[in-house]
Amino acid sequence: MHRHHFYFGLVFLVFCGVAVFSVTEGGLYPVAVVNGGFIMARDFDKMAQSAEFFYSRALDTYNKGKVEGEQSENLRREVEKATLDKLIERKLIAVELKSRLAERAEVSVDKKLLTVENQNLEGAARDLYGLSIADFREMVLRPEAEREVLRDIFRSENVSFESWLEAAKSGASTIVLLRGI
C-alpha cells in the first residue's frame, strides 16, 4: 500500500516538474498585468530579442564597434523597458479599439494591413528584425495598423490620440512582474 503512494507521489512530482518547465520555457507566464489583461513572457521575450537584433544591426552599421560590459547591460535594460512600455501601449490600444468597434475592429485592421502587405517586406523583416514575415506581421504590422485605425477614430472625433494614450497609460492599473524594470 505504501509503495503505491510512493510511486503515485513520484509520478505526481515528475508531472509537476514537467509542467513548471513547460510553462517557464514556453513563456506561458505573465510579465505584466494591464487593467486585468496579461502581457506574456513569450511576447515580451520575442519582441525584446527582435529589438536587440535591430539595435545590434544598427550599431554594427553606424558605430562599427561592439557594445560590451556595463554599456551592453544598460542597453539591454533600456530595450527591455522600451519593449514593456510598447507592449503596455499595445494592450491599451487593442482594448480601446475593441470597445469602440467590437467585431468591426478586426475588419478595419485587416483593411489597414492590406495597404502594407503588398510590399515585399520579408527580407526587411528578416534582415532588420530577425523575424519571419508571420512574426513581423503580428508583432509590428498588426499593432501599428491597430494604432492607425484608433488614431483615425480619434481624428474624426477631434481628439488627440497622443493625449488619449498618455491619459490611458497614466490611468491604467499596471503591475510589472519583472525585476529591474
Tell me what you see in this structure.
This protein is mainly α. It is built from 7 helices and 3 strands. The chain has helices at 2-25, 41-63, 69-101, 104-117, 122-129, 133-156, 161-171; strands at 30-34, 37-40, 174-176. Strand 1 and strand 2 (37-40) form a beta hairpin. 16% of the residues are buried. The mean pLDDT is 82.
Number of helices: 7
> Which consecutive residue ranges, at least 5 long each, have pLDDT under 50?
none
Q: What percent of residues are in strands? A: 5-15%
What general outline do the C-alpha atoms trace? globular
Number of DSSP-assigned strands? 3
Mean pLDDT score: 82
Structural class: mainly alpha
**Helix content class:** over 70%
Order of strands across the widest beta sheet?
Answer: 2-1-3
Strand count, sense and barrel status of the largest sheet are: 3 strands, antiparallel
Distance, first to last CA: 51 Å
Quaternary state of this entry equals: single chain
Cα-based radius of gyration, to the nearest Å: 21 Å
Give the SSE order as H and E letters. Answer: HEEHHHHHHE
Task: Provide a quick synopsis of the model.
The protein has 181 residues and is mainly α. It is built from seven helices and three strands, in the order αββααααααβ.
